[in-house]
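Chain X:
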Amino acid sequence: MAGDEATVTAADIARMVGVGRAAVSNWRRRYEDFPPPVGGTATSPAFSLKAVEEWLLHQGKVEEVPLRERVWQQIRNAADDLRLGEVVAEATELLRGHGKRRLVPPSAWGLLRDLAEEQGSAEAGAFLLDRYAEVHSRRLFETPAEIAHFMARLAGPDVRSVLDPACGLGVLLTTIREVEQVYGQEADDSVARLARTRLVLAGIEGSVRTGDSLRHDSWPGVTVDAVLCHPPFNDRNWGYDELVSDPRWEYGMPPKAESELAWVQHAMSHLKPGGTAVMLMPAIAAGRRSGRRIRSNLLRQGALQAVVGLPPRMGAGTGLPLHIWVLRRPIEGGPIPSHVLMAEAEPESFDEIAERWREFRVDPERAAQGPGAVRSVPIIELVDENVDVTPAGHVSHVGQPSAHDFPAVREQLLHRVERLSTMIPQAVPSAAAAAMPSVHLSELERVGAIRVLNAGRFEISGAGDLVLTDHDLFSGTTPPHRTHPEGRVLIEPGDVVVAARSGEFAARVVTERGMLLGPRLTLLRPDAQRIDSYFLAGFLRALPATMGTGTHSGVSRFEPRRAVVPRMPLEEQRRYGESFRRIFEFEDELRNVSNAGQAAAASFLKALGKGDLTPPPA
């Protein structure tokens, strides 16, 4: 596409100038000479990049449009979102002196060479990688750097060969340095090419091949010291029917709905005896009924050696609760561990847990127990009817902190309170608070912008066994409730689940898979191209208590077709939705701090009362 034909959205313009989207909307209203749309839709118009650049310079909004932004807009306009990866991959390869220019437009390549001359080819390539990852964050689900480095530490200090069979952009492959052999595989060819570029930029010699690792393993017979992997979650098309007799299923045939357990065993098949696999897993895999046989075999044979729970919402692109599983390939004739290390982690406790894991590897029989929610759990306690390896269920009953632990517990609580202060939402007074036009949810349902579902009526599925209830919505908890799934609605990511009780609403945007809709709940499934989920949930939460509710047998319930929300363009919805999302996160952290503070206060009171602690000197 020629440079004159390149277009930008309002969000792109905001990024170019370093302002918020609202500023761009104001410019469109205030300035008659603001460039008119040349494409897009009424709610998401597209503007000529050249015309916007000229207007910004003429109005003095910028002295010059940053070269990086000019490069990115030209690259992004060279293809639609589905082929953008191919363009970015080609661009990064050209910067390395590989291949021929086919998809990158001449105008974009000229600007990119200017950027490489100004900042260096490596810096220009890294910029394209980071911007591509940002644009496709919801599709790529890249491992956050903090988690990736923690996983690398858990892999151990003596790793000389590493494999990631679902490597994405290669984040995990670049976290272990001083490694001699690096192997990666990625199903998407353009993403695999970008992963190769990341390795080169990191100065790591390695090989990344394209293909589906479960169906077509590109590294047959290769064994390594460590496998680091963030596999695809909840993938029902992982090859269940074709791979029934696969020799990798050493610990049991993975159920169709348990793709993660297929990835675990694939990782184990590539380990040398004594090698370590560190897997980022959805928390639900720790206790799902269908996977208990495999979990039991992993425990009994000494393969699963540690499970670490991560803080809620720490995974990029997903709100799923996450765990890290650490597995080791048993050494033939070697001792079988009798304990598993369980931990609940916060970023500030990663160092401590990594040290506990190092000690556990040296002496697995050693009792690891202390104030940091870490415990060495006997395997015999885990191989019961459920074989649930969720850390919270096994470290929560650890004894109260001792007097010796008081300074550390106090320091952790202070850190959480300090972090909470940074999460307090921001907003500014509005002069148009009463001017927002509204629309009934019944109208949104009529035009297909949302669907309304109730428990037990539609989309029956037997795929899950966790049921979300009204208690979970009002308490902000993850459902521990298990049930037989017949007749339940399977909740999808992006759904808004609503509950009502006397005087208040609860609404949650569900980001995880595998949960079922419980009784007295209403599910709203918005069309993501027309309605923002957090916008919808936030404005429903703000409704008056009498709006949209009815009673049945004395129990409050939500009447969605009576409720109203503001009518506004999708771009503006997303602006509100981002604020609502931050408020929801703040509420969650408030609960966490409150729970931690109450537990700590109770412990301190008891310790002072028993004489284990004494007040500070006057």
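Chain Y:
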Amino acid sequence: MILHNEIYADIRQGDTINDPQFKEGDQLKTFDYIVANPPFSTKSWLKSAKFEDEYHRWGEGIKIGVPPEKNGDYAFLLHIVRSLKQTGCAACILPHGVLFRGNAEAQIRKYLVAEKRYIKGIIGLPANLFYGTGIPACIIIIEKSEAAGRKGVFMIDAKGGYIKDGAKNRLREQDIRRIVDVWQAQRDVPHYARFVPMEEIERNDYNLNIPRYVSAPDTEILQDIDAHLHGGLPKHDIDQLDTYWEVCPSLCDDLFCDHLTRKGYYSLKCNPEAVRDAVTGNVDFRNQKEVFQKSFAEWCDSHRAQLYALLPGFAPKKLIEQLGNSLLAVFEVDKSLVEAYDVYDSLMNYWGETMQDDCYMISSGGWTVQLYTPQPASKKKEKKAATPEDVVCDLLPVPIVIDEYFAEKRDVIAAAEELLAQNETQLAELVEEQAENYLDEGNFPDGKMTDANIKKRMKALDKRTDADEIAVLQKYLDLKGDISLNKKLIKELKYDLLTALVVKYADLSEADIKRLVIERKWFASLALRLDGEMQRISQQLTSKVSALAERYAQTLPEIDAEIADLEGKVAAHLKQMGY
């Protein structure tokens, strides 16, 4: 709470159910807002059976029994309900089982949904989100103010929106934003969100299990027996890719054609190996890429003046909120292969990894840059910078300044390093090839293959009879000499570049820093990430089409004929062998 600048927070420790700390007299204190993540399915939460609870959370007086002692989930939820003002709202994370478990919990659920109508919505979350348990959870939204006129419950099925993060799953930025946007809009989204009328819930006996009300998308692979017998690609499988065909109508025609002999079935126009080329070469797909890049350029243009005008003291959190909202708005305008939330996720990931730190540096210290040499924690002695790799700058990375002002020096160093790599490869190959013949360490004094020992051996050899060995040894020395010269040259070139960098960083104006950070760092990094989204879509479609073609590549009669042919060949070989 201190880190979030809530220094006057009132934090109390105790048994929430049996000895609540927030009270007014002999009753519970009530609040406008409550958020809670109580322990899942607490065992023996009720120290002594109190059917008539003194705080009126359950009991005969409110027509509801005591929650089961082995599952304390509803005890916490009823405590929250009782601790809310009549105009209050609450959100509580509970295990998914509270939505459908029976007996006493079913009675409580009916009380909350039908009689009081306190539950405004339910958000289903992915499994394995929380430490200590892998079971799926849900967020139950309680709102008392509009309970009397409530006509149903708004449900969001967000169980499929996550990313694997080590041993656990994690909600991505786009998953969180999608949940928030859909909840605030209270709009139905196919296979994701739906307002469920109270009558439908009543018909299901107040079972709130989300899959009963929000259907999952059709992702099942149906094995078409007729296609396996007679060939062709089923229409059902191709229709499952309609999200691609809606955006790129000509793409389906470029990939598939009607089967020659079978109505209602299709054939792949190109070889399976050429699917990727067919996708990337399609005119509609290319247009999609151009529109995508144009939309990003428009977003950059709309925020360029704002970013150049950032002054010390600005609020980074407010900035990213504006950037994220406008990015979603730009990419939701046109139907695109890349979802707006995927683009938003790229921005938020870059913000978390890099841009956030940059903005806080600018907010606290302005548009200033300084080179420094990071010191290893284990070394007390200060390290002296000798190459450009030894120095860093957090706000304006060294590679950007090198690319902008010292590209020629960079290319010369790269060429020298490439030549060094070639010489080192040649030396390694020479040693490997001639190890047994001439470059065995046993052939030299003290068993050491030093330059001095090699030169001594060359003097002792006969130029007429040992010419081959002399040539190998001389080549070895020449390559080692070239490598030594290359390393010395690279060291001098890098030191020269480092000196130029130090001078350049000191001379950079605020306008130069802004231009390089905004254009060459922020916008360029985001453009690279978003280009990766288009490549991901291309690869995804290629994989799906290739898998479909492979599924029906051979008919059953063809497989049977191939098996019969192989069996015949094996029988013939066995016969020749005497079996």
